[in-house]
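Memo subject: From amino acid sequence to discrete backbone structure tokens
Keywords: amino acid chain, backbone geometry, structure tokens, three-dimensional fold.
Body of memo: The sequence and its backbone structure tokens, given next.
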Amino acid sequence: MSQSKNKRQMITVTNPRSPISESYRALRTNIEFSSIDETLQVLMVSSAGPGEGKSTTITNLAITFAQSEKKVILIDADLRKPTAHHTFSLSNRWGLSSVISQQSKLEEVIQASDIPNLDVMTSGAIPPNPAEMMGSKKMTSLLEQLRQMYDIILIDTPPLLAVTDAQIVATKSDGVILVVDQGKVKRDIASKAVKSLESVKARILGVVLNNVKRKANEEVYYYYYGVQEK
């Protein structure tokens, strides 16, 4: 992946005053205020299908949390089509899969990004059994360790309707953000994604709509809506 594409994905760094960057900050604020009495520390970001912008969304959300002086880690738990190592120009020799399989120690798979306060755990080698890894006791233990180390833990997963990985991770998360490409995904497909989360009693915090055209121009932007009350 080219450096220029990486920079386009990090619009909250390259163009922090843009409307899109402001929308990511609004997303962060909505998450922070969506639950005053309950902890929202482990957050999963997913989509119904591929190519809806979930990885770009989680990258910029992680950056905005880090910019607000939170200690943040982004975990690439898409063990089928990982992207974080490309986005942040990091090594993927070791990562989530290697720490779960006990080939590496936790401190060996946490990498500092170029963004202050933001660390990244890449996917590591693609394993033959991603869903089993996500459902393992080791994954649960790993998240408990990270809760002691970070203010915010953001987890990127495979699309919800492709495999069961995301549903499994959702049960270990405090909340879920669903990314929907409005120009690509039909309402019934998005509804199936929501139902797949509801079936495991995941807490859906809201939806990020991608590829919504503004009336003033054709610029793509993101926004957040629909905080779900318990």
